[in-house]
UniProtKB/TrEMBL annotation:
Keywords: Isomerase. InterPro entries: Man6P_isomerase-2_C, Mannose-6P_isomerase_type2, RmlC-like_jellyroll, RmlC_Cupin_sf. This is Mannose-6-phosphate isomerase-like protein (Cupin superfamily). GO terms for biological process: GDP-mannose biosynthetic process; polysaccharide metabolic process.
Amino acid sequence: MAGDSETRPWGSWHVIDVGPGYKVKRIEVLPHSRLSYQTHTHRSEHWVVIYGKATCVIDGVTTIAGPGESVDVAVGQAHRICNETDEPLSIIEVQRGGYTGEDDIVRLEDDFGRAEQAAAVAAEA
């Protein structure tokens, strides 16, 4: 829902707008932090850097994007955003797909143990 937000160990996200088939977020990444390396089953993502420098890893390929530059992530591609600088990083993320819920995340690697937690829960099911 628009207005939703969460603080995470790497920074925060804030929903700007949401509607049928899309969600728009502002993502703030703290210096020397990164999001989990993850995939999505139901959505693609388009990232636009607002300020800072984003190190983007998509299917193991690393690219750097600065203010005004954008990066596309297709459905199912493994991806992560990293901020390897001393400055804050802000991006706008446009999600497109039939489902944009926060539970459409498969964490492959995570600096905060969330990939291991998800694997343990799946093993118990």
